[in-house]
Each structure stands twice: as structure tokens, then as C-alpha cells.
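Section handout 9: paired folding examples.
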Amino acid sequence: MKNSNLWLLGLFALALAMSVSACCCCEDDEDTTCPDLIVQSIDPFIDVDCPGGAGTCVTTVKFTVANVGTADAGAFNINIVLDPGASVSLNEFVPGGLGAGDFLTITVTSPPGGNCYDPDCTVDIFVDNSDNVSECDEDNNKGTQTILG
């Protein structure tokens, strides 16, 4: 009876080890079947329009995010910070996620008062800033662009 219990315990331990090692997105794994979201590019043309003078300025930024992984990514959020010193923060939710190898170009506009240039404009973009998607590489989700004013 004791030998059969040990055998079952060993079999259970082996099954558990195999299920842990089969994790598709563990960074220590050889298996790279997982999504990997990145900021592919930030358009260097950042538009600021001030239709009614100071205080009415809006900043428009266009950027592209991509899934360079080999699996689809589920829904995720993107945090866009215009001029980190002024802390104009925007969020863009991607409810449909992004398929493996796909990319998505997004244009966002700040609310009035969001002039990014003082005199330069820095844009920080954080893809999946809420960590909703388990990715192959969680350290490549940020893109930064500074445009001289």
C-alpha cells in the first residue's frame, strides 16, 4: 500500500511539474508561444492646436502598437502621458486585443489645456500598463518620443 501511495505521489508531482513547465509565457521557458505587446512607433509629427488661445490647446499624437509574439493578446489598456512634467495622462482601451503579428495605429487627442510643448514635447506610451496580458517579455511595453519645440 505504501509503495502505491508513493508511486501516485510521484506521478502527481511529475504531472504538476509538466504543467508548470508548459507555461506558455514563462520567461524562463524555451516555449515562446505567447503574446508580446510593444510600442512599434510614435509619429514624430505631434500636432498642437490652440483654437482660442492659451488654455484651449489640444495635443494630437499618433502611434502604433504591435503584438510581436506568436499568440493573440486579449484586451489591454494603453496609457499615454504627454509632457510627463505636466502629467497630461490619457488612456486608450483595446477591447478586442491584438492578434499575433498584428499592429494597430491609434490617434489620441488631449483635452483642452493639453499643450505638450514647453518648449519640447515628450510622449511616453505604456502598452498593457495594467498587466492584463501575460506576455513573453513584460519589459518592452514602453515607448518614448521627444520632439524638440
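Moving on to protein 2 of 2.
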Amino acid sequence: MLAPRRLPALLLMLSVQAGVLGATSQAAPSPTPGELIARFSADYRGLAMGELNLSYKAEIESLVHGTDIAAQRKVFDAYARQLRAVDAQAATSCQQRDLKLIDFEVVLNQKKLDLIEQYKALGDKAVLSNQGLYATSLGSQWYAYLRMRWLTMATTPESLKSLGEAQLESALRRYRQLQAKMGYAGRDQQFAAHLAGAEFYYPAGQTPEADYKTRQAIVFARLDQLFPAKGIAPPVIKGVARGADFPADAYYEPDEKTFYFNQTKPSLDRRNVDYLLLHESMPGHHYQFRYAAEHSVCPAVLPEVFYSAYAEGWGAYVEEYGGRLGLYQQASDELGAVEWDLVRSIRVILDVGINQEGWSPQQALDYWHARLPMLPQLAERETMRVRNWPVQAITYKLGQYEIRRLRDLAKAREGEKFDLRAFHERILRHGAMPLALLETITQGAPP
């Protein structure tokens, strides 16, 4: 999980000043790639695009009441035409990347404007329901838009639900294997009682700080076996008082290069230490952000952009390398990672069920308790999160799955020549990217 204040910033790129746009519209019909990219970057900084809200209600209200449709339509339609006219063959590799990014944002925002106009056309009949996106006017269309906005690739509810079910079954098998390894095969009640024991929690007054620092040193010493060695220093590790109600045990703050753990949680779970360190520190968010900042292969011409599915997907993906990086030394340590894989998998199913199929709160809770009886304490919080923040929680699982899929494709394509470190370098070298572009952009050698 990235620092909470960074989560809504999905589309920090793209803003346009109307005065500059007038000049842009008089430009030559066939701009060079460099000219188009430079104009796009300059033109869009003045247009108030707004941030992506976690809440579906806040997002729809912001879009419907805060969007200058005419100005944005003029901008995005103009760049759609220019993209068709530009000579992409004359572009450098980095310019081709930027043109793909611009095209992705143009198409996304044109779809957004179409949907806003449809909603506004309903007039007084438009309903923004407190009961969820499904009960909101054009709920299915809003859900399709939010899927593209958060997941940054084309999906269908059916494909997502199938993915979630398959991933949940896989995670459940791993959970049962670890349960058996710990000596509790077929004894679910006894296993739950065992995991609730004091040995799995830090005593009052003690925090995981020392364990985090010890584990970080272990990972850092082995990092270059699996990831490109670029001399990236580990983050600072600090405790922070976020309060007992804060939904995460830890998070990463990119601007401060700091991994924070919430030291005011009533009980700090030892089982979460290894996977959280991998996800937030190295080779997770800290390594990911510092690699892009220090070793990007392309100059930063476009304004900064944050794509949640890429960022959170990478954090979830690297957790699987814990054993090879010297962590998960006990089965219970790996169990913590598997438990959260269960959560991330079932979120996908619940998201579709609640926001596309109209599941009631009780239906969602019943499904959770039937599939994950070992994690009852998370059921209400997670189902409410999915109802209030459609799609956001899917970014972890879909991003992780897509990076794994690309890795398997690269293995099949390259055979014995496949180098895992080189693959990871291709994923990281451009920084945050829409998942829709990741496959083509990450193939081959760096530009």
C-alpha cells in the first residue's frame, strides 16, 4: 500500500490551458512526434482534470459537476486527430512510448466525457445511490469506466470473476498446504486457536521495527540475484501513530523514501512482517519508485503519472520471491502472505458481485464466510471497501496476475535465454505504465 494521500492521484498527467489550446488547434496537421508530445504536455497542465476519488459517489459527483465538457472534448478530440496524423515511424523508442501513453489517456477521457453526457442527459431522473454503484443510474457503464480507469486495461466482469475464482482456489490450496506443514491438516478450529496464540503477536510495548530492519538487510544482500543491481539504497524504516482504525499495518511514502509501520495497532501480527517488507520496501514500492527515478531509460517529458494497477501489482508480485530472498523462514511467515493473497483474490469476486451483479451486503458477507471462514474479522471491512470504492481493491490482484503472465510469456518466448533480472528490468525501466501498454513496451532491449 502506498501512502494514503497518493492513492487518488491516478491521473496527475493531463491538463490543458484553454488559451494555449487555441494556438494548438492552428498547428500543422502533421506534427512531428516530438512536437505533439511537447504540445500535449504543455497544453494539458491548465485543464482542471481533478483527482480520482476512491469513493464512487465522490468520483461521480466530481465528474458530473466539475467537468468542463466542452473544453475537454475540444482538447481530447484534437489530440485524437493529431495522433492519427503523426508519423510514428519517425519517433524514437521513447517517443513511441509517450505517444502510446497519450493515446491511452485520450481514449480513456473521451469515454469518460461520453458517460458524463449520458448521465447529465437523465436530468432529474439521475440517481446517485447510497446503496452502491449497482443502484446508481448507468451503474454498469460507470463500473466499466472505473475498471478502465483503475485497472488501465480492457476487462469484462465475467473475465474478472473467473480470474478471482481461479486465484482464490490457488491461494486456498497453498493455505491448506501450509496448514498441514504446521501440523494442523484437517483441524481448522485447532489451527485457528493456534494462530490466535500470543507467539504470533508482539507483546504490548514492542514493535516490529527491529525485525523489519533485520529482514531488510537479508533481502538487500540477495536482491541482485533476482532484480537488476542498480545501487538503490534501502528506505528508512519508522514507526508512525496512524491509530487503531487505520486499515494497514504498514505503507510506503515515496516522497520521504520511508517505510512506515503503524505502531498504534492494538496487536501487531508477526505473520505480516515478511510480506509487508517485500511489498512496501525492497523489492516492492521503494525499489520500484527509486528505480524509475534513478534509472529510467526515457526522459520525463510527460507530466508525472501514477497508475495503481502497475504500482500495487508490482508490490503484490514480488511477495512470491520471499523464500529466494531469505525470508519466509517459518511456515507461519509465508502463511501471512498467503492469507493476504486470499483477501486480494476474493476481493475480485466480491467487486463484480456487488457492483455488477447487485449482491446485497448479506450476500457478500455470506460468500466471504463460506469461502474464507479462517478470516472472519476482515469480512465486513473488505465487503464495505469493495462497495464504497469499486475496482480500487482489484488493482493488487490484476496487476500481479498481469506481470506474472508477461513473465511466463517471456519464458516461453526466450527459452533458455530467459533472464529473470532482465525481465524485471523491462518491467521497471519506464516507471508507472497502464497495464494495457505493458506487454508491448516491456518487450526487447531498452531504447
